[in-house]
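user: can you give me the structure for this one chain? tokens are fine.
assistant: on it. calling the predictor now.
[tool input]
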Amino acid sequence: QVQLVESGGGSVQAGGSLRLSCAASGSSFDLKDMVWYRQAPGRQREEVSCISTSVGSVYYEDDVNGRFTVSRDNAKGTVLLQMNNLKPEDTAVYYCAAVRSCHNTELIYVGQGTQVTIST
């Protein structure tokens, strides 16, 4: 079992930055690839980034590539998403999740989400 708790969301103006944190507890966290995804009202879930386990390979959705940076610290049980140059279209609830792999993002465990709101 892995429990996930997101934090760090909030409201900022376009061009600003936020850093989301996902705190994981459970014995198998370091064996899981982790994904950040977002969901805005009326829109489908969108995966924005994935980070693999020990190798640390990272993947980004095209629209956030160059603006978002994902990292993880297995010893601390955390996954971070640094978001820079935020745009109004980044507004959504952001979730972290443990997945089968970054190439098979079937959700295994999901946090409760944190709201990100970007104003013009």
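assistant: here you go. The chain is about 0% helix and 55% strand. The chain has a mean pLDDT of 93.
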